[in-house]
């Protein structure tokens, strides 16, 4: 009895819905086929565009690579960024330190903050090939320089930096690079301006010697600078900046700023 009562109450609504469906069918039949095809095409293109946008958002890199010679303080910087500790300031790594985390300085912030995939690549010459595993997906590169022991290590650091700046994976993607002069809390530390000038001079020498090699030897490299002009980092295709830091004291704001410019919160 209740079922019959429900049916009788719903019957007017069902009839009205059927009438709406008939009107829609009549309206569709009156639309020229060409307009229907155009509408379907626009709909498909819109869906395709939205899928592309979503895919691009997923592929935006959140990887920052720390590299440089051994003893520069890369691993201490890694721990400062991760948990705010210096680990007594002496950390030797023979394997890459890798982690996905929100920067320690941002842990107290409210709201959703994007985690950073940070990789600390050992600076030992035998372990440097590991860098090639991470560069293709890097949003930014941090080249750490020991500001205290800079001069005796300048030629080796310049050669390593030259190799990075001429890698196809770096140049083609225009990956930004920060030269981070670490240990500036020490009295004997060199200034970032001095370090910049010395690196540019050494790279200019390397550029001259490298271009004198046969084409077979440099086939996988990009050339640096402008022919006939002294080399400067401003000539690089990818943006190169220089900043000060002290991993031991936690004065790493320029590094954090560089990371957040590459990996948006």
- How big a fraction of the residues is strand? 5-15%
Number of helices: 8
CATH topology of the largest domain, anyone?
Rossmann fold
Order of helices and strands: HHEHEEHEHHEHEH
> What is the overall pLDDT average?
83
Extended strand count = 6
| Unreliably modeled segments | 214-220
Structural class: alpha/beta
Distance between the termini: 62 Å
Q: Helix amount, in percent?
A: 40-55%
Under the CATH scheme, the architecture of the largest domain is 3-Layer(aba) Sandwich
Biggest sheet architecture: 6 strands, mixed
CATH class of the largest domain: Alpha Beta
Q: Give the C-alpha Rg.
A: 29 Å
Question: Widest sheet: strand order?
Answer: 2-3-1-4-5-6
Shape category: elongated
Describe this entry's structure for a reader.
This protein is an alpha/beta fold and 265 residues long. The protein folds into two domains: 2-57; 61-262, P-loop containing nucleotide triphosphate hydrolases (Rossmann fold). The chain is 45% helix and 14% strand. It has helices spanning 2-30, 33-59, 74-83, 131-134, 150-165, 168-171, 192-211, 253-262; strands spanning 63-68, 97-101, 116-120, 138-146, 177-182, 240-244. It has a six-stranded mixed β-sheet with strand order 2-3-1-4-5-6, with helices on both faces. It is elongated and about 95 Å long.
Key structural traits:
alpha/beta; Rossmann fold; six-stranded mixed beta sheet; 8 helices
Task: Give a concise summary.
The chain has 265 residues and is an alpha/beta fold.
